[in-house]
């Protein structure tokens, strides 16, 4: 028991809060920030925390509202500037078309039959300054164009791209989630980036192999000449064709 709160009760509140947050984000149109605030209040109430701020015997202020404001302020003070610069860098990437140009560059570097690697590592880098969902929207037309030209499975190309985007977005600063972890636990951001890269690079390689060896065979859907997604017929796959993509500004 800490500050009059039972651990089991707090864990129950946390479990209910996670379910509630997922429901509000996926099934309703509630804005994500508001959903987080609502979830925080629900967790605190179920966990037994007082809604209003009270002062404990040792002089510590304690309460749901106080915890929200102090926690938000402490986190923002440690990572706010980095997030701000990250948002600006992400906007520059989107507006200038740098993400697409990076993808085209990787396609040339990796060469024929390595489109999964090119898309995955493009997403791996792009997702650091850009949110992964925005990066997927920006880069998915390139995956579609590759599928149309090479007759490779669009599903496998999309999985490789999504894996690269999601892995770095959830593990490598300056994306907000990892930065929040650094701020809360007082971890050095530079060391965190190095360790996260050590973990995320092998994960990306495994995702590429999964997309190529399994997804491409099980879900071999390609883009035809009419830009329609159709199931590839046996013998119709034309691997190794030259890719000639023109980036759109």
UniProtKB/TrEMBL annotation:
One of its GO terms (molecular function) is gluconate transmembrane transporter activity. It holds the Pfam family GntP_permease. One of its GO terms (cellular component) is plasma membrane. The chain crosses the membrane at residues 9-26, 32-51, 72-93, 154-172, 192-211. Keywords: Membrane, Transmembrane, Transmembrane helix. InterPro entries: Glcn_transporter. This is GntP family permease. It comes from Oribacterium sinus.
